[in-house]
Protein 1
Amino acid sequence: MSVTPAVVFDVTDLTKVYRMGEVEIHALRRVSLRFHEGHFAVLLGPSGSGKSTLLNILGGLDVPTSGRVLYRTDDLTAAGEAALTAFRRRHVGFVFQFYNLIPSLTARENVSLVTEISDAPMDPDDALDMVGLRPRRHHFPAQLSGGEQQRVAIARAIAKRPAVLLCDEPTGALDISTGVVVLEALARVNAGLGTTTIVITHNSAISEMADRVVRLADGQVAGVEERTDKRAPRELSW
């Protein structure tokens, strides 16, 4: 008998409204979802569907207008800025479309920045090894390809051993073959560290490697699919 993994995020009636002068923009409309420990989840939808807003609220980078987000038993929507900062530092790794590496630091030094402020960090070389870049650890970002820079960004995010890895269009700036290598790194982290991984994408092919696919449209959940036939990144085509 299979055991359902623990709930990591419990989202209830989440609404986010941005006000620009007299105009209200409804980015999220009463979204209710759950994300489970160790799962690889994909948030799928067109631009403006609410994916990034949801990811930012889950990561403690933004707060909702109404509704509730529980991280395990902690109510993030009741947390102040200091508590959200501590939550991000201890529990969350972020990977964005643009790598945000420091040009004057080597790959290893970029990863080390995170390990210096973490409670129980990985060795930077081990983090780079997980994404297949230990041999390139002494290279600067300008000496690395786009895919390699993105893998350094993933190593930096996982070096503090986060419980959750949140990725916003991590392959958006990459070609297909390079994107597959980056997705393989994310899959390796998810399987090897048991990190709950949530990936935003507009690319439906990536959903085939997920345990759960959440489709968003116009700030609402348009559908949730549980997958048992996950495919390896190299089996994807787009």
Protein 2
Amino acid sequence: MKMGIDCYMSGGTAEALELCSDFKPHRLHLIEAGKQFTIGKWRIMPFEIQHDAEEALGFLISDGRDKLLYASDTYYLKYRFKGLTKIMVEVSYEKEILDENVRNGSVHRQLKNRLIKSHFSLENVKEFLKANDLSRVTEIYLLHLSDKNSDERRFKEEVAKLTGKAVYVA
């Protein structure tokens, strides 16, 4: 905002960043889950996600031709989506890798407890993908992989095998 860039965020995020005190900066645009808004040619529908941050959101973004799902910093998506053409989804860890890292002491048990209540596991992402209509999806991007608790190559292979789609790791 200080650099002249409009920023869109939930009221909970703005409060956590202490941006909504006595005045609202003119570059701050508060958005709400379930209330669509437009930026240029893009229609954006924010939706609730499950995370330990205040009022976290995922986004369904469409230009009338493509429909992108963006979901990061969530451990579960309660919604199902139709007509998606692209998916960008967090896959932070796999339970087996995380459990081994707790056993060998490279990850503290408290961090494990936080991860499972705030970030998507490979197992949950695969269940989410199976529950959705992927018939128009051309690309899936895996986001927010943990350095210690994931395996980029295997995650990519497993999601590609499950979906039959092009899979990339960002």
